[in-house]
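From the shared-data thread, chain only:
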Amino acid sequence: MVSEYGGLPGGVAVSHLRVYDWPAADGLHGGTPHMHLTCSEGYVVKAGRGAVQTLTASGYEVTPLTPGTVACFTPGTIHRLVNEDDLRITVLMQNSGLPEAGDAVLTLPPEYLTDPQTYAAATVIPADAPREEQARIARARRDLALEGYRALREAADGPAALAAFHRSAAALVQPRLAEWRERWLRGARAAAQATGEQLDRLSGGDVSYLAEAVVRAEQPSTHGKFGMCGWLDAYALP
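Structure, as tokens:
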């Protein structure tokens, strides 16, 4: 029997993003700079215009985003979306959407990165709060993350400052690693294992699993959720 896997191809997840149009202290409009520790992420630009600013050990870059652009980045890339004209993106996320389910650390100033409780107090948006309050918190944490982001970009000892942020981020997520591993086992690893088993069966002339083909279609389960970079339409897929 071929291993069962019911998620999207390759263990990815997808959401639709309308990037925040809130102005920031530097005059730009957009989202919250942050970094993923175990997941790559991809952008497929659907409409509008903008850019993604990135900061890695190789330095600072700006990648323009226009309709049709596909951009992707690996773990360790600090990224900030800038909205210049109604920027709308389909986001592809590794590991069954783990980037929106915990694998993200905002670039808050160091005093907010000392422990999970302090970090959560500055970043969590209560699901039962009125929408106006959710917007206030989302914007406040964006502005706070921009403070830390600017400090990282402007640090005289840039590589050392970035390495210190990496260490703080790793310490913050340490309590959740077992949970992340389970998501990987059920998602990306299971998808790859199923392909391997299918190849083995084809090599032996066994095509019986093809009779078990299924088709599914889903609509977003949430609309306009306050995400890190903008308003999200997300799917409740495995």
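The first helix runs from residue 94 to 97.
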